[in-house]
Amino acid sequence: MPLTNQRVDVPVIVDESKCLEKCVACIEVCPLDVLAKDPETGKAYMKYDECWFCLPCEKECPTDAITVKIPFLLR
Ligand code: SF4
Ligand code: SF4
Description:
Blueprint: E1 12-14, H1 25-29, E2 35-37, E3 44-46, H2 56-60, E4 66-68
Antiparallel strand pairs: 1-4, 2-3
The structure holds iron/sulfur cluster (2 copies).
Organism: Dactylococcopsis salina (strain PCC 8305)
InterPro entries: 4Fe4S_Fe-S-bd, 4Fe4S_Fe_S_CS, Fe-S_Ferredoxin
Domain 4Fe-4S ferredoxin-type: 10-40, 42-71
């Protein structure tokens, strides 16, 4: 899977101001294992640019920090 270069240009955007440092809910629930914690900030981010748009990450986040940008063609 391709590593992401830019965190703003991936399908899953994490609002770092809302992400809880101790939480790993989105990472555990993702079937593709594409989400990870930034070891420096403790915030979640999309590590690999691959997504099934299945949405459990967005639903399970306790603080609504995740936005999944569903591509127009899949809507
Ligand atoms: S939408 Fe699904 S595949 Fe994409 S990051 Fe969230 S849980 Fe993972
Ligand atoms: S589920 Fe939400 S609060 Fe928890 S790690 Fe993911 S983005 Fe952060």
